[in-house]
């Protein structure tokens, strides 16, 4: 039996990561697999390796944070959100204050920035894009992607906002400067306030139910009335009114 109590306390103290909020079985299976790949037989041994070897540490962090993302992820839902930005959010609020939470490589935040640029929608401030993983944030800030990573970007946006050099696609400064990245842990760090839009997709699925419920309340509190909360395409909120939200479209909720 692996000593997860020890390991959870150790990661909290030494890496400042709270693993207690994540669904246990899934997470422990993942940790067991990556631990064995390093040759460690126990979590105590694995902790020593994480502390002494930066590569083991980086692999551990990458493995538990699952960074899969896409520009305009779930295109039909994104299209619906784009439509709401133009027909509802812009007329109602004018300039928008937006938070892309658990942003991974920035694809989501940059997709929003492209939509805003295309429709001339004003920013109240730069889009705030946050993630717990500093390595992925460093990549996001660079704005350099492979052809696979931008496969969902349509031809027009590709031509307008990317330049290609060999196999790399460089996002334009025009879009990059509209997004500000910073480290933020959804479990434990404070939330901002006054948002017109919060996008948090494909991360709450990894959290325990009670943590998820707490987060929905915090997201609702962080929105202004009429603001929209955009979730992932498997993250339906049951009884959204419990959190002061109503369903506006599939995976899009409005703060009452
Ligand atoms: C599957 S990706 C989703 C990326 C993007 N939102 C999307 O839907 O395409 C999940 C992201 O959540 C981040 N993450 C995991 N735990 C987190 C936490 N406690 N606080 C903030 N971000 C977290 C991971 O680092 C990863 O980048």
TrEMBL record:
Protein name: Chemotaxis protein CheR
Domain CheR-type methyltransferase: residue ranges: 1-256
CDD domains assigned to the protein according to its UniProt record, in alphabetical order: AdoMet_MTases
Keywords noted in UniProt: Methyltransferase, S-adenosyl-L-methionine, Transferase
Keyword Calcium tagged: no
Pfam families from the UniProt entry: CheR, CheR_N
InterPro entries attached to this UniProt entry: Bact_Chemotaxis_MeTrfase, CheR_C, CheR_MeTrfase, CheR_N, SAM-dependent_MTases_sf
Native species: Carnobacterium inhibens
